[in-house]
Amino acid sequence: MRRTWWLLSVATSLACYQGVGDFGDSLGTETGVGLSNGDLGDGDPGDGDSGDGDPGDGDPGDGDSGDGDGDSGDGDGDSGDGDSGDGDGGPGDGDSGDGDGDSQSVCERWNSDRADLSEGNWSGSVNGCNAGDMDAAWRERSLRQINLYRWLADLPPVTTSADRNAKAQACALMMDANDALSHSPPMNWTCWSAEGSQGAGSSNIAGTAAVTAVDLYMVDYGNASTMGHRRWILSNSLGPTGIGSSDTYSCMWTIGGNGNAGKQWTAWPPPGEFPAEAINPLWWGEGLDETGWTIQSDELNLGGAEVSVTVDGQDRPVSITNLSSGYGSTSAITLIPMGWSAEAGTTYHVEVSGAGAPISYDVEIVDC
Hints:
Blueprint: E1 3-8, E2 16-22, E3 29-36, H1 103-113, H2 136-152, H3 162-178, H4 194-200, E4 203-206, H5 210-219, H6 228-233, E5 243-245, E6 250-253, E7 266-268, E8 272-275, H7 288-291, E9 293-297, E10 306-311, E11 314-315, E12 318-322, E13 331-337, E14 347-353, E15 359-366
Parallel strand pairs: 1-3, 8-15
Antiparallel strand pairs: 1-4, 2-3, 4-6, 5-6, 7-9, 9-13, 10-11, 10-14, 12-13, 14-15
Region (Disordered): 28-107
Protein name: SCP domain-containing protein
Domain SCP: 143-248
C-alpha cells in the first residue's frame, strides 16, 4: 500500500513554492510537499497557488507568486494548552559546540518524551463542518515533540495559545473536508471559515495527524530549497504556537511569534550529543542523511559560507545548498552527506567560514 504525505509551510516573503519528492518503489511511499508563503507577524499569508501538484512526479517546481492580501493576524489568545517543556536548555551550549549534556541525559529525555507517540480522539466531524477539538493529552503529545526537538537544539520551549489552537483546529477541519492542503483556501471550499483560513495562512500543514506531523516537519522531505518546516520549529521567534488536528490532517501555527531565543545560529543536528534515532525518526526513508543537515541564522549571512565536515581529521564530503530566505530564519544552508551516513558512536566536526563569524562545533551521535 502506498501512502502519500503532504506538507505545507509558510515563509516571511510573499511568494509561492510548490515542491514534489518521490522516495521510490523500494519504500513504497511517496511524499508531495507544497509550500505557500505568508508574511511574518501581522502581515499577510499570501493568496498565491498553494502547491497542488500530484505527489511523487518530479523535483520541486517554482509555483506562482502570491498576492499577499489576506490578513493572517496574530491570534493573541492566552497561552498554555499543554506541556511547555522543562526549559532547561539543550544538551549543548549552542555557539561553542561543546555539548555539556551526557548521553544518558539526552537519551533519557528522548526516550521519555517519545514513550507515547499515539494520536488521539478528534471530537469534530466533516459532516456539519464541526471543527471540534483534539483531546488535551493528544495536543500535549504533539507539543512535547516540538519542545523535545527545540531542547535538543538548545532553544527554549514554547507553549500554545487558546486562540491559535482554535484557528489551527478550524484549519485542520478545512483540509480534511477538502482532502487537500492550501495556505489560501478559497471561500467555496467545504467547511471554509475565516478562522480556518487565518490558521491556514499562518501554519505548517500536514496530511497526517498532529504527533506524526512533527517528525515529518523535522525531516522535511521534498523541501530541498527551503527546509521550511524544520526551520520554523527551530526558529528564534516561534511561540506561542497553536495545534489543531483531525484524524488525518493537522495544522501547526508558526508565524507571528513573540519568541526571542536570540541564538546567533542554530544547527540541526545541533552541537553536542544527538540521538541516532533522530537522524530518521520516521519508519521509512533515510531521514537527515537524505534531506540534509541544516544551519540557520537571523544574524549571519550563510549564503557564501564554506563548510567542512570531518571525522578524526578525515573529510566527509557534503553538498551545500543556500536555502530561500524567510522560512523561520533570515539565512540558512543545508549540508547533504555525499557517500556517507551518520553513524552512532561517531563524532562529526563541522567548520563554517565566510559567514561573518566563525562557526565550529562537534556533533556526537549516540545510540538511545
